[in-house]
Amino acid sequence: xxxxxxxxxxxxxxxxxxxxxxxxxxxxxxxxxxxxxxxxxxxxxxxxxxxxxxxxxxxxxxxxxxxxxxxxxxxxxxxxxxxxxxxxxxxxxxxxxxxxxxxxxxxxxxxxxxxxxxxxxxxxxxxxxxxxxxxxxxxxxxxxxxxxxxxxxxxxxxxxxxxxxxxxxxxxxxxxxxxxxxxxxxxxxxxxxxxxxxxxxxxxxxxxxxxxxxxxxxxxxxxxxxxxxxxxxxxxxxxxxxxxxxxxxxxxxxxxxxxxxxxxxxxxxxxxxxxxxxxxxxxxxxxxxxxxxxxxxx
Length: 298
Fold this sequence. Notes:
By secondary structure, this protein is of the alpha+beta class. It has two domains: 31-108, CATH 2.40.50.140; 121-294, de novo design (two linked rop proteins). The chain is built from nine helices and eight strands.
């Protein structure tokens, strides 16, 4: 004969069981993260895995491992290529401080961008700036949105817009980080730069100085034309899309590109590898460095 016995738990015991279950469930859920990310760097890890550097809106830069992604039949293989915008699903181990990519959905592969070396090099330069500045620090979502907007502009068959997309990414990133000097004011004497006057981008302060102050001992930099100064001042107050409709002639565009690359290298604190691949800039920087070595103004 079987005797059934009812077990009655005290209120405190019931509360303990509920709390234990709740905290166990919460801990498991907290290890699962989801984010929109752009893949900035891909390296092979072992025989079949990928080590990824991703940039996300919510978590900044992420280092994660995609197991099996290097294998041609892996489910993550086609969703973990360079410069892809994906919805990423991660498992995070807080003890080891490691992120594992468990699944990914491709939102945009920027396929047009990857058919043009010119566009690809400019996208690579944007990626390098983000990585060299540790995801822009506290800029977070605003830098992520700027990066996505830039990639979409680079992912176009209109080759005339490519340089302007890169120029605007650099200028807006520097402004967002609070390191952009006023193009209408001399950084040395504080006087307003006269309309139609030229200036010099000073290497030491990364600011614009008037012709008089640029001639002082110890000053060196590159000349900035009145047209470039007007471009900087005007595009500061318009949207990203509107700024791309402001164009210059080919010499003016080359000057703006050179100017922005010098500013970018000043902000990151050293040479940018991808800058060498941007047309003509490597030769120009060598020319500037040779002038510096000789103690002359470029």
